[in-house]
């Protein structure tokens, strides 16, 4: 029965793609004969959207195929390094709107995860979901009073039943389609569909693990503890399970609801600038950033609208940067906005993002060709996200390998930039970010950094300091023991060099005598024999010295 279901799912995927004319994206001349025959055989599956653009047909097909394909489309919409603007903008319209599953089924799943009846620790469970998504569904409840007599409004996020099997099955067919696209599309090599699906597989499987999301949220909350810029709801880790997340319920205004934000008197300029600050703080201070900051995951607190507070939820996807990546990224931004394209090229090579044998001069010219036209615009109109895209696209022509952490960073930056300019169209992202980057660079490379590194390493050196006299004594003792051995080796080397020089002397002498014997007309055979005897004698002497 299982193989039949898999084949039926394959048919549904193929039929949906054909009904939306997605097959027409691939040039017919690149189709193998077997595929052409198969398409003719499925003659009843015709394009039902002939007037729509290719990008729109692809978006409609993904919507029809369900949540797994919808999330793939959402991810692809951020990969403007792979897709042209038409496709990226069309796929960005995908909305993760999925019909809810029954509340009583959600209750049963929650109790199965907890291992005891929900009423033991919770009350007021609402079977009507607060929100639904492709992977999970959210219900509200109240956590019963603790030892301090306090109760807490919470939300329970539970994984959809059977979604993991559906995801794995769809991923299997996605990988098959990716191989087909890689072979048939003229641009298949550049688009790297197999690598994209591999990246998507990791991302979506990570989102299925609520324990991972809980840990991410706890880390992010700790990083912004006491902050007036970002609030992350409290996670009740005692009740979290791999398929269940329990967290504090928050009340806020969705960041995409501009009308409600304005009605609440929100300082939109400050809100937009604060979003940029939150992003760069996560990246450059903490090296740990929320990588799924689309409008559905961001709220704004209703209190203090003149000094607005961002609220972030859904931490299933996070990105990290190591110290080298952070430094090179900050230097790249600063060098780019200072139009120092040679510095940008050198940084890409130094970081290992492009091969070490890359021509700096050619790379600099390529970067200037792509990026210089951007500066015809005011700085306030320059897109940080598109700066990254242009840099990565140019670097990829020079065999830059895909950097997963940078892809997540680019995606998050596009989200934040889009939100910031939606909230406050006059936002000058560069003026907001540049002081942050300059302060960070100074902090990393200046006297503060030296002092911090010394303090960080102080416990290590404090531990090793008592051992230092013993280490010095042992090294000196070993050096004394090595001296006789070094003297013996030196003497042997000189003896061998002397023997080699003597061997070369006799070899050269034999060659000279041989030449004289050959080219001189000796008066008798006796002189000739004496000459060849001398050659043989010299050869024997040379052999004796060289064989010792």
Automatic annotation (TrEMBL):
It is a multi-pass membrane protein. Pathway: Cofactor biosynthesis; ubiquinone biosynthesis [regulation]. It is an enzyme of class 2 (transferase). Its EC number is 2.7.-.-. One of its GO terms (cellular component) is plasma membrane. ATP binds at residues 130-138, 157. The chain crosses the membrane at residues 503-520, 526-545. GO terms for molecular function: ATP binding; protein kinase activity. The keyword Nucleotide-binding applies. InterPro entries: ABC1_dom, Kinase-like_dom_sf, UbiB, UbiB_bact, UbiB_kinase. Keywords: ATP-binding, Cell inner membrane, Cell membrane, Kinase, Membrane, Nucleotide-binding, Transferase, Transmembrane, Transmembrane helix, Ubiquinone, Ubiquinone biosynthesis. CDD domains: UbiB. Pfam families: ABC1. The active site is at residue 292. Residues 94-348 form the ABC1 atypical kinase-like domain. It is found in: Cell membrane. GO terms for biological process: regulation of ubiquinone biosynthetic process; ubiquinone biosynthetic process. Its main location: membrane. HAMAP family: UbiB. Is probably a protein kinase regulator of UbiI activity which is involved in aerobic coenzyme Q (ubiquinone) biosynthesis. Belongs to the ABC1 family. UbiB subfamily. Belongs to the protein kinase superfamily. ADCK protein kinase family. This is Probable protein kinase UbiB. It comes from Corallincola holothuriorum. The lineage of its organism: Bacteria, Pseudomonadati, Pseudomonadota, Gammaproteobacteria, Alteromonadales. The gene is ubiB.
């Amino acid at each position: 029965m299982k193989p039949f279901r898999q084949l039926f799912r394959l048919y549904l995927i193929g039929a949906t793609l054909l009904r939306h004319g997605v097959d027409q994206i691939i040039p017919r001349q690149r189709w193998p004969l077997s595929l052409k025959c198969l398409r003719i055989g499925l003659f009843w599956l015709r394009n039902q959207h002939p007037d729509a653009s290719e990008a729109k047909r692809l978006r409609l097909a993904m919507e029809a195929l369900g949540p797994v394909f919808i999330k793939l489309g959402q991810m692809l919409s951020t990969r403007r390094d792979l897709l042209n603007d038409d496709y990226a903008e069309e796929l960005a319209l995908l909305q993760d709107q999925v019909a809810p599953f029954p509340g009583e089924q959600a209750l049963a799943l929650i109790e199965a995860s907890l291992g005891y009846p929900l009423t033991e620790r919770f009350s007021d469970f609402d079977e009507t979901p607060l929100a639904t998504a492709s992977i999970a569904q959210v219900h509200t409840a109240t956590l019963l009073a603790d030892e301090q007599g306090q109760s807490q409004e919470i939300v329970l996020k539970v994984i959809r039943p059977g979604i993991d099997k559906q995801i794995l099955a769809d991923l299997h067919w996605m990988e098959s389609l990716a191989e087909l696209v890689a072979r048939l599309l003229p641009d298949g090599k550049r688009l790297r569909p197999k690598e994209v699906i591999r990246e998507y597989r990791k991302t979506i499987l990570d989102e299925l693990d609520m324990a991972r999301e809980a840990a991410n949220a706890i880390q992010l909350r700790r990083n912004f503890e006491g902050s007036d810029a970002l609030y992350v709801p409290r996670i009740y880790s005692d009740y979290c399970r791999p398929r269940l997340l329990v967290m504090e319920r928050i009340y806020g205004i969705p960041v995409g609801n501009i009308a409600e934000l304005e009605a609440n008197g929100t300082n939109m300029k400050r809100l937009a600038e604060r979003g940029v600050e939150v992003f760069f703080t996560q990246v450059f201070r903490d090296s740990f950033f929320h990588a799924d900051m689309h409008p559905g995951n961001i709220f704004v607190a209703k209190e203090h609208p003149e000094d607005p507070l961002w609220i972030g939820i859904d931490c299933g996807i996070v990105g990290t940067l190591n110290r080298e990546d952070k430094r090179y990224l900050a230097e790249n931004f600063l060098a780019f906005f200072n139009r120092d394209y040679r510095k940008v090229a050198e940084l890409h090579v130094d970081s290992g993002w492009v091969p070490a044998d890359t021509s700096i001069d050619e790379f600099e010219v390529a970067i200037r060709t792509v990026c210089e036209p951007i500066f015809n615009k005011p700085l306030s109109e320059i897109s940080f996200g598109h700066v990254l895209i242009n840099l990565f696209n140019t670097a990829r022509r020079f065999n830059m390998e895909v950097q997963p952490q940078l892809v997540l960073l680019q995606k998050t930056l596009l989200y934040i930039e889009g939100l910031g300019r939606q909230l406050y169209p006059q936002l000058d992202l560069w003026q907001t970010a540049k002081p942050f980057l300059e302060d960070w660079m100074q902090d990393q490379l200046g006297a503060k950094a030296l002092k911090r590194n010394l303090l960080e390493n102080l416990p290590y050196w404090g531990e090793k300091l008592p051992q230092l006299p013993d280490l010095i004594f042992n090294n000196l003792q070993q050096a004394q023991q090595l001296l006789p051995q070094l003297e013996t080796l030196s003497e042997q080397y000189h003896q061998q060099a002397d023997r080699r020089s003597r061997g070369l002397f006799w070899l050269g002498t034999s060659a000279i005598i041989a030449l004289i014997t050959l080219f001189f007309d000796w008066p008798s055979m006796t002189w000739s024999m004496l000459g060849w005897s001398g050659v043989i004698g010299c050869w024997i002497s040379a052999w004796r010295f060289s064989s010792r």
